Amino acid sequence: MSHAYDIVVVGAGPAGLAAATAAAAAGRKVAVLDDNPHLGGQIWRAGAGKSARDGARERAVTAFGASGAELFAGYQVVDAVASPGALQAWVTAQQRLERFRFESLVLATGARERFLPFPGWTLPGVFGAGGLQALVRGGYDLRGKRVVVAGTGPLLPAVAAHLKQDGAEIVMIAEQAKMRQLVRFTASILWRPGKMREGLQLRADLHGIPYRTGCWVAAVEGDECVTGVRLTDGSRAWVERCDMLATGFHLVPNTELASLLGCRVTDTGVEVNAEQQTSVTSIYCAGEPTGVAGVGAATVQGEIAGLAAAGQAAAAAQLYKRRDAEASFGRALTRAFALRPEVLTLGEPDTIVCRCEDVRLGELQRRAMRYRNWTDAKLQTRCGMGPCQGRVCGPALEAMFGWRNVSVRPPLFPIPVVALCSPPSQEIEVSIPETQENSR
Amino acid sequence: MEAFDAVILGAGIVGAACAYECAAAGLRVAVVEPGVPCGGASGVGMGHLVVMDDSPEQLALTHYSRDCWHELRSTLPDAVEFEECGTLWVAADDEEMQAVFAKQKSYAEHGIRSEVLDERSLREAEPNLRDGLAGALRVSDDAVIYPPAAAGYFLASAERIGAKLLYGRRAVAAQKGDVVLEDSTQLSAGHIVIATGTDVSLCPSIKVHPRKGHLAITDRYPGVVRHQLVEMGYVKSAHSLTEDSVAFNVQPRKTGQLLIGSSRQYGELDGKVDPEMLRKMLQRAVGYMPMLAGLAVIRVWTGFRAATADKLPLIGPTADDTVLLAIGFEGLGITNAPGAARLVLHHMTQAEIALDPRPYLPCRVGSSEAFRA
Amino acid sequence: MPDVHSSGGSVTVRVNDERVEVPRGAMLITALLKAGAACRVSVSGEERTALCGMGICFECRARVDGVPQQRTCQIVCRDGMTVDTQR
């Protein structure tokens, strides 16, 4: 099946919805693709609880619904070329590949959590912070469960507040950043009324939950599942009993599709100009992939990208000031939640680093091998060769060893052989045959 | 200026094996590699240790070298994942079945163990192959390894006994016992071994033809395939110098992942995945094994095999008697690496070798015309 | 906008032959978590379950309705769906 649109937006989170809404309102034929069954991306994931804080989400969703842009939910982009513009998306529910042609593309692929390895982090019961929130929104019942939230970033208190609302008992929040970094950060947002309001609301929601800075998880305790976590502040250590650990170390941008298309990507994220245009003319990028900076930045960047892609440069320019203000918030976030050296050296030699291939830290540190870069380590240890394609271990290896994964090839996500084996213009339906192995 | 008995250019599987042999023989060795070890064809191929009978000389070399791998097996670390799963040469019809019998005969004459499977025993050996195949030849002593770990082991072992590994450095000139690196470092060498894969810029009179191939690796499906499966038509495909072709070739890895190949393209220098070639390759594979259709592909990549005009590698001295070649292995670089390394050592030190080195000598090619396809 | 907790009703799926009831609209991973079942066993024999909750880590892969290697955090539960831990 093949579709043609003026503008295709990849990602239906805040940036993608804003871009699609703006472009459709300007009269363009717009499609939005997202691999999740519902729109909202991560931060606006559909789920329990509607509160005043969801006002922005409701406005965005309503505007999108009225815009005329078409949503393709459950579509995962696996390959794309810039010129002539075309992408291939795998539709899991129908087990087929569909092709979209476009004049312009807006990448709003969001960000994912950064995980760092420490002893016990692979135990059932250890989840990402955003990960646990996503699971709860997906129906996971946490009522009465004791949860420790640990790592770094503004996501930790936000997740803790939501989990508490959903009935979990939040034992504590352990933030690795030093108090003085956070004080500086708070001072930097004092003049932003919106952010201050959010911060104060959050503080009220977290009333009674200890939020400790300058401490981190040294190890997870438990044999088959989590029974507690050992925390440390660098001098003393103590154990908190809990049923689960929600852990994450801020976010890293999802830049894979941009790289595949040949867009220039730096340490911060995808390089864009004032109009959110990447180094490839027909490709725009908005939100976290250009640099993690939160919902406000994503929304305004998305709107600029949508307007620019639709040829409305003047309207887009009116949003620059708001965008620049949000960008400085993003930079403040990065400074505040920078990783301290201690959290990069929590692993022991038998701590797993690559979860797909069970590659342990000791193998990556073998002095005889002296791995020179990501490719070297990957070839020798198989680290990064599993189905996640290095999305989990990659950010950890970059933080710990300075290795960056620069090679991105299609398919961007695993897809069945049959999807690669039929011409994209043909609609291919497959009923997955029983394997001999599973029919024994 | 540092002096060595042997300076090996290239840390792919062949260069690594040469470093290992030469160091073990007591030579003072240096290895020069501009990238990372095994970062070329050796790191992207299938790691199939296979005897190949496209010519008597190739059969001799692959048999000898496969035996070398078996000798090495007990010293190789677990990471090399040496699995003696054997090869099944699959015959689709009676004509190919005749070729199976002929192959068995020629292997037997060379002392290589193999057995013919009929349609029923093939189905028992590999239940997921489609019905209606005529049979196969099982070569039980063929095996599968993970080449980067083997190259890593060879290089680390060589280094432990004194070899110098110079990574991230590129040779810009190599002749008359002198190697000059890009950073102006000079190395003096009793012998220089050129094991640089598809890059023959240091020996301009030599021509190799890069033969682009595609591979796909699946998620884990343990027990689905037990042997390396290759169609009898593979030999035809591997030997065309001018036509693009695909052939059914599937390898089970220890983890249950399947490596699916193979393709060959002529004159193609762009490393990007070619969707049309990939499609043909996978369609052919699904034709032999229908249930492959539903398996998840995690990654697809390409690599370039260095082929010579007569399909045999060039191993031995050039007109400059300090410069030895070890290049042009096409799809048999992994299999032939230890055999090539022993040939190289023989040429350097006249060490005895139970293989006739003459068919692989660079000078066999004669005039410069013969170097070009 | 489907809201897992407020739309009401439930569906029943089978997790390793055990019947598990979950709210309508819930993701399949939550049924596995509720049953206390791991999704898969890793290369070195560790039991694993979801980590990222958003289809990126591939830890939540299980056999769904007979098809292996499916990411259960991306699949909405349907009545009668079966999911088995992958060994």
Task: Report a brief summary of the structure.
By secondary structure, chain A is of the alpha/beta class. Chain A has helices at 14-25, 55-67, 129-137, 155-165, 179-189, 193-205, 256-260, 294-309, 313-317, 320-336, 361-364, 374-381, 393-401, 417-420, 436-439, and strands spanning 2-10, 30-34, 70-73, 75-81, 86-91, 96-107, 111-113, 126-128, 146-152, 169-175, 211-213, 216-221, 228-232, 237-241, 244-249, 251-253, 283-285, 352-354, 359-360, 415-416.
Can you offer a commentary on this structure?
- Chain A has 440 residues and is of the alpha/beta class.
- Chain A folds into three domains: 2-112 and 252-334, FAD/NAD(P)-binding domain (3-Layer(bba) Sandwich), CATH 3.50.50; 115-249, FAD/NAD(P)-binding domain; 351-401.
- Chain A contains 15 helices and 20 strands.
- The longest helix of chain A has 17 residues, at 320-336.
- The model of chain A is unreliable at 48-52 and 426-440 (pLDDT under 50).
- Chain B has 373 residues and is of the alpha/beta class.
- Chain B folds into two domains: 2-47 and 147-207 and 310-371, FAD/NAD(P)-binding domain; 84-142 and 208-307, D-Amino Acid Oxidase, Chain A, domain 2 (2-Layer Sandwich).
- In chain B, strands 1, 2, 8, 9, 10, 11, 17 and 18 form an eight-stranded mixed beta sheet that branches.
- In chain B, a hairpin with a 4-residue loop joins strand 14 and strand 15.
- The two termini of chain B are 39 Å apart.
- Chain C has one domain (13-84): Roll (Ubiquitin-like (UB roll)).
- Chain C contains one helix and seven strands.
- Chain C is globular and about 40 Å long.
- The interface between A and C is large, with 46 and 44 residues.
- Strand 20 (415-416) of chain A pairs antiparallel with strand 16 of chain B.
Number of helices of chain B: 9
Tertiary shape of chain B? globular
- Helix % of chain A is 25-40%
N-to-C order of helices and strands of chain B: EHEEHEHEHEEHEEEEEEHEEHEEEHH
Share of helix among residues of chain B?
25-40%
- Average of the residue pLDDT scores of chain B: 94
CATH superfamily of the largest domain in chain B: FAD/NAD(P)-binding domain
- Could you list the spans of chain B in which at least 5 consecutive residues all have pLDDT below 50? 368-373
Number of domains of chain B: 2
Number of helices of chain A: 15
Here the CATH topology of the largest domain in chain B equals FAD/NAD(P)-binding domain
What gyration radius of chain A follows from the Cα positions, in whole Å? Answer: 22 Å
The major β-sheet of chain B equals:
8 strands, mixed
- Total domain units of chain A: 3
For this structure, what is the CATH class of the largest domain in chain B?
A: Alpha Beta
Number of strands of chain A: 20
The CATH superfamily name of the largest domain in chain A is: FAD/NAD(P)-binding domain
